[in-house]
Automatic annotation (TrEMBL), chains A, B:
<comment type="function">
    <text>Catalyzes the ATP-dependent conversion of 5-aminoimidazole ribonucleotide (AIR) and HCO(3)(-) to N5-carboxyaminoimidazole ribonucleotide (N5-CAIR).</text>
</comment>
<dbReference type="InterPro" id="IPR005875">
    <property type="entry name" value="PurK"/>
</dbReference>
<feature type="binding site">
    <location>
        <begin position="302"/>
        <end position="303"/>
    </location>
    <ligand>
        <name>ATP</name>
    </ligand>
</feature>
<protein>
    <recommendedName>
        <fullName>N5-carboxyaminoimidazole ribonucleotide synthase</fullName>
        <ecNumber>6.3.4.18</ecNumber>
    </recommendedName>
</protein>
<dbReference type="InterPro" id="IPR040686">
    <property type="entry name" value="PurK_C"/>
</dbReference>
<dbReference type="GO" id="GO:0005524">
    <property type="term" value="F:ATP binding"/>
</dbReference>
<feature type="binding site">
    <location>
        <position position="224"/>
    </location>
    <ligand>
        <name>ATP</name>
    </ligand>
</feature>
<dbReference type="Pfam" id="PF02222">
    <property type="entry name" value="ATP-grasp"/>
</dbReference>
<dbReference type="InterPro" id="IPR003135">
    <property type="entry name" value="ATP-grasp_carboxylate-amine"/>
</dbReference>
<keyword id="KW-0547">Nucleotide-binding</keyword>
<dbReference type="GO" id="GO:0004638">
    <property type="term" value="F:phosphoribosylaminoimidazole carboxylase activity"/>
</dbReference>
<dbReference type="Pfam" id="PF22660">
    <property type="entry name" value="RS_preATP-grasp-like"/>
</dbReference>
<feature type="domain" description="ATP-grasp">
    <location>
        <begin position="144"/>
        <end position="332"/>
    </location>
</feature>
<comment type="similarity">
    <text>Belongs to the PurK/PurT family.</text>
</comment>
<feature type="binding site">
    <location>
        <position position="179"/>
    </location>
    <ligand>
        <name>ATP</name>
    </ligand>
</feature>
<comment type="function">
    <text>Catalyzes the ATP-dependent conversion of 5-aminoimidazole ribonucleotide (AIR) and HCO(3)- to N5-carboxyaminoimidazole ribonucleotide (N5-CAIR).</text>
</comment>
<dbReference type="InterPro" id="IPR011761">
    <property type="entry name" value="ATP-grasp"/>
</dbReference>
């Protein structure tokens, strides 16, 4: 177990509720079930959404216990994982207390402030990935600076603090995408510069912190790819087949594994970029590198995520080792599992919230229509455009897999009724 | 939700603790998480061992909630499943109260008394499989009588109440296996008749109930097979490929899917026997039919289990739909999933408790030695010969799969150290 700070009575000190908007952390008391027979560890996950939820099936198989620091009692992970205290990941006392009941700490998002993680490490808590690596996923300016130093292929970019700096950059590229360095996800914090968005851009610049904003070349890409890597603290790394991903309104919509019509050289290049980033940045756990492929066949790094990622959901059904099992193995410094695809093609399609709320009823038709489709639902309330689940189909024929997975997702969402 | 019996205040009445050796059931209070968004149901499972535990991963994927009536707080399932109240499955009030918080009731063992199940059904609780079917898994004399009526292939057998009746039967067969009609499992309640066991046999006869014992022909089988079937309340049925299973000391040890060197006719016969039993007995959920294959190629029914079964653990990694997902789909009357094998061969080897207790440490070597082996541990305390986990290897070459799975199981058990 990691170091704890019990008082003489052995009690864990209470968190300082005053500093925590979510209220003090309420930890499940230690029971006779602690420790697990056989020396199995407890992995603490910060964040209680579907990514933490999907770590539970491999944790059950491995015999590892998960504890989740959740945002709410009714979160996606809290319904699947035994111990899911609610607490604020931005509060040091809360995170420290949570960590004291875990053997290793990991994340389903990158939002825990660096200073909290530094303090935990100083207290002897294994934090994986560590704050040095996570900093590059938290701050896109730091990420672009680092990747450029490493000579890795990026779109043109500039740090801009003023309208004049932005205009100067805009003159060097065919189009500009403006990004807030921190806090963006799923299309949020991203603005394509145009006449109609100029006022918004000025507004963003006015409100930006001292570091300003990240301006990037709007890449004329032909498609998006993703390289999914896992890396352990001892430096072992594994790379799944490179996939093609399709976004809709800034949200991942469809993934095809492996990416069709990718030459072996292109696949090797994308994998090599992913492995190099994982190693140079000292990532531990799963790293997703979102890539643009350009008309002339170049590959450019778009975004990084240091956790299981939507572009890797296909691995649950489609690979020998899923990204969720691999993330647990990596943060526990266990040898990594085989990443081979289990079928020639795997297609994953997200189920986004629509008008239809009676999700369970859709199973009657979806499962009868296609007994081979694998359905994954996240136990989240339906909201328009929200990721509420995904479906996966594996097979020998890509068009067949695509048609089947799209049908199932559209039916569950309520877009079609046959 | 099924019918409940709340008093006017809405409180669930307390179970009658006096009748329950385990103490009164302690149910997790209903929370804001109840019901789950999207209309997803709750499946109640009687029994908190590894079979209930292994239902949790597919329940998480499907978005279905499990509640388990467990034997102890530290049981295998209780460590993986959120709501696992401890209670006695032989106590009507306990089971009734448990059922009141579930949409459907199912089992990981066959030991709930029939009268309790009849009462639940009278109260409107969906009990799957129902007591009429379960009776044939609970009582081996009833099973043999029924299968013989149906003309299904059984070893020679007789109901014996006295030594004379046993002797008379013994003269008609080359060898005798004596079985207690109720309560046996994993080799318990089974006695091979010989000079050295004659005294034990007399003792069993003396202590037997009014129905006496089941005497069966000791079949000179060449190997054991198993047919795994799932059946839904609406009568849809699905059969996985027939497997070969190897027992050691009366406990399932190894399973090969599909059974090697089985002719298509033999496979069809075994499957047909399984489907016929599922239909004629009105089974709902998974049915495992253990079979003997004789030297002259005949197939005889050995035992039945109406729940996920050790002979089907290979389906977790080796089939499109696992027996645990299928059991949930069946008891929820959802359309059944595809049962196709995902690889030419899948080998499952049980991990039995040995001398070695530091199970987790074994992962370091097992996973480095073979990144493709799938490990499943049950979070159970190590006891000699106890089922504490299993490993699975899928591949194109049977000998390779066998060697790899056996190595991993032996290493985790501590039988080998390289």
């Amino acid at each position: 177990m990691v170091s704890t700070s019990p008082d003489a009575s052995g009690a864990v000190p209470a968190a300082d509720g005053a500093a925590a908007p979510f209220g003090a952390v309420r930890l499940t008391p230690l029971t006779a079930a602690d420790p697990i027979p056989g020396g199995f560890p407890t992995v603490g996950v910060i964040g209680g959404g579907q990514l933490a939820r999907m770590m539970q099936p491999p944790a059950v198989a491995l015999g590892v216990r998960l504890r989740v620091l959740a945002e709410s009692e009714t979160g996606s992970a809290a319904l699947a994982i035994h111990e899911a205290p609610v607490g604020d990941h931005r509060d040091l006392a809360t995170v420290t207390q949570f960590a004291s009941q875990c053997d290793v700490l990991t994340f389903e998002h990158e939002h825990v402030p660096g200073p909290i993680l530094e303090k935990l490490i100083a207290d002897g808590v294994p934090v994986r990935p560590g704050p040095a690596a996570l900093g590059f996923a938290q701050d896109k300016l730091a990420m672009r600076t680092k990747l450029t130093e490493l000579g890795l292929p990026c779109p043109s970019w500039a740090q801009v603090r003023t309208w004049e700096e932005l205009q100067a950059f805009a003159e060097t590229v065919p189009g500009v995408v403006l990004k807030t360095p921190r806090g963006g996800y799923d299309g949020k914090g991203v603005l394509v510069l145009s006449e109609s968005t100029a006022d918004t851009a000025r507004n963003w610049l006015d409100r930006a912190g001292p570091d300003g904003l990240l301006a990037e070349e709007k890449v004329a890409f032909t498609r998006e790819l993703a390289a999914l890597i896992a890396r352990s603290p001892s430096g072992q790394a594994a790379a799944w087949p490179v996939v093609e991903s399709t976004q809709k309104d800034g949200i991942c919509h469809e993934v095809i594994a492996p990416a069709p019509n990718l030459t072996p050289e292109q696949a090797a290049e994308a994998t090599s970029v992913g492995l190099r980033i994982a190693g140079e940045l000292g990532v531990v756990g799963v790293l997703a590198v979102e890539l643009f492929q350009t008309e002339d066949g170049r590959i450019l790094v778009n975004e990084l995520a240091m956790r299981p990622h939507n572009s890797g959901h296909w691995t649950i059904d489609g690979a020998v080792t899923s990204q969720f099992e691999q993330h647990l193995r990596a943060v526990l410094d266990l040898p990594l599992g085989e990443v081979r695809a289990r079928a020639p093609w795997t297609v994953m399609v997200n189920v986004l919230g629509g008008e239809y709320e009676d999700l369970y009823r859709s199973y009657l038709h979806v499962m009868a229509h296609d007994p081979g489709v694998k359905v994954h639902m996240y136990a989240k309330e339906v909201r328009l455009g929200r990721k509420i689940g995904h479906v996966t189909v594996c097979g020998d024929d890509l068009d067949d897999c695509l048609e089947r997975a799209r049908h199932a997702a559209a039916f569950i969402r309520g877009d079609i009724d046959e």
